[in-house]
Amino acid sequence: MIFGEDRSELRQMYADAWRKFCADEVLTPLEAQIAAVVDEHPEYQRIVTEGNIETPFTAEGGQTNPFLHMGLHLALREQVSTDRPAGIAAIHRHLSQRQGDPHAAEHRMLEALAETLWEAQGENRAPDEAKYVARLRQLS
Predict the structure, then answer these.
(1) Whole-number pLDDT of residue 59
(2) What is the DSSP-derived secondary structure letter of residue 46?
(3) How many CA atoms lie within 13 A of 130 on its CB side?
(4) Which of 67, 100, 101, 108 has the highest local Cβ count within 10 Å?
């Protein structure tokens, strides 16, 4: 596993990447990807900077989990770069053109990814790629 299985360890990677980015230090390719996502989310930068890695962001508390949100961006960007599932790169291009911004397109696509992952987790199975792509195509 890239990040380890510990939530604090994963969140610390965001804090470290952002600190290095802000200090203009050399970043690994993964750190550069993380820093780019944090940079695009000024509303989360304070959370990452202040090291709120133990905060339990919960839906029940009406909170968005910034680390989950940014992690979904990273996952989606990996999917687009590898075109896996097949067709996702074209869907992203199309939505980026319609939205006028790749980041805005990602925000639309994240809901389909989150829903697909949530269903798979709830049913204790692998995500249904066909259903996921169908959801993404409905966004066009």
Answers:
(1) 75
(2) H
(3) 0
(4) 67
**Integer CA distances (angstroms), 113 to 27, 29, 45, 54, in order:** 28, 23, 23, 25
**Angle value at C-alpha 69, between 64 and 70, nearest 5 degrees:** 135
Q: Are residues 44 and 96 in the same domain?
A: no
Has residue 71 been placed in a domain? no
State the CB neighbour count (10 A cutoff) for residue 79.
20
- Assigned domain for 76 exists: no
Q: Which residue has the tokens 């990996």?
A: 78
Query: Across residues 21-40, what is the average pLDDT?
Result: 97
- Our measurement of the distance from residue 87's CA atom to the centroid of its chain's CA atoms, rounded to an integer in Å, reads 19
Domain that holds residue 43: 1-63
Is the pLDDT assigned to residue 2 strictly greater than 60?
no
Judgement on whether residues 55 and 90 belong to the same structural domain of the protein: no
Say what percent of the chain tops pLDDT 90: 81
With CA atoms as reference, report the closest residue to 77 among 36, 132, 129, 127: 36
